[in-house]
Design a protein that fits this description.
The chain has eight helices and six strands. With 234 residues, the protein is an alpha/beta fold. Strands 3-2-1-4-5-6 form a six-stranded parallel beta sheet, sandwiched between helices. Bound molecules: S-adenosylmethionine. The site of S-adenosylmethionine (SAM) has 17 residues, from loops. S-adenosylmethionine binds next to loops.
Length: 234
């Protein structure tokens, strides 16, 4: 299990995070439906328009290199949304068998055309595949949407499908100040943990894959701003 930043080439966000803000419960409720409002509604309710722009391409290359993926290998993206990473993985490694899974029927119906037919409606804590099916299972900015018990189950599911070859990125904070910002910007998170608490959860779940963090800290070197709660530049 290692801390690996596979999203370092994700475009940096233009942040307006300097001060905490309070979330409107109605917007949070709308976001948690993971429907049209969340992906293509207003910025207050989610991404404010979730469209393909190729930003996952360099990340897909890094994922392929990190896991040593080759044509014919199977890869699963849990919480694939509209299949952008699925599309780019297939593009950078032709012949890779990539499958995406998401709970959002809306996202799958509005998926990137190249990913259609490869996306499965389902939930990350009950993955409909046999043990050891995948050469890698990715789960980027999804797990914190579960409560603690379901986080454990989802991590065990990833481990079951690809022992030691998972990649999990979760939202986190390292101080009270960051927590305040986190609470104001992260629309859908249910489990709020510090990095050391996440690591303890990984151990408790028996998860042995790799992981990294999304931290809403304007000054940090080690954050990635790929959560719909943050403004994007890319
Ligand atoms: C913050 S988005 C991340 C999307 C993509 N992985 C990325 O990093 O851009 C969270 C995604 O998790 C999906 N999701 C939420 N709950 C889920 C669940 N129980 N099982 C699978 N996907 C889920 C949402 O529909 C959404 O597509």
């Amino acid at each position: 299990m290692a801390e690996v930043n596979l999203l370092r080439r994700y475009p940096r966000a233009e942040r307006k995070l300097a001060r905490p803000r309070s979330l409107d419960p109605a917007n949070r409720e709308a976001a948690l439906r993971f429907g049209a409002e969340y992906f293509d509604g207003s910025r207050e309710q989610g991404y404010g328009g979730y469209r393909y722009d190729g930003r996952w391409m360099p990340i897909a290359r890094d994922i392929v290199a990190h896991f040593g993926l080759r044509p014919g290998d199977r890869v699963l993206d849990v919480g694939c949304a509209k299949g952008f990473l699925v599309t780019d993985l297939m593009s950078v490694c032709p012949g890779l068998e990539v499958i995406g899974l998401d709970i959002s029927d809306y996202a799958l119906r509005h998926a990137e055309p190249a990913a259609r037919g490869r996306l499965v409606l389902g939930t990350g804590d009950r993955l409909p595949f046999r043990d050891g099916t995948f050469a890698a299972v990715l789960c980027i900015n999804v797990i914190h949407n579960f409560d603690r018990e379901r986080c454990l189950t989802a991590l065990r599911e990833i481990e079951r499908l690809a022992p030691g070859r998972g990649y999990v990125q979760v939202d986190t904070y390292r101080s009270e100040a960051e927590r305040e910002i986190f609470l104001g910007w992260v629309l859908t998170a249910v489990t709020f943990l510090r990095p050391e608490e996440w690591r303890a959860l990984f151990v408790e779940a028996g998860y042995t894959g790799d992981y990294y963090w999304t931290v809403l800290d304007p000054d940090s070197e080690w954050n990635d701003f790929n959560d719909p709660g943050t403004e994007r530049r890319g």
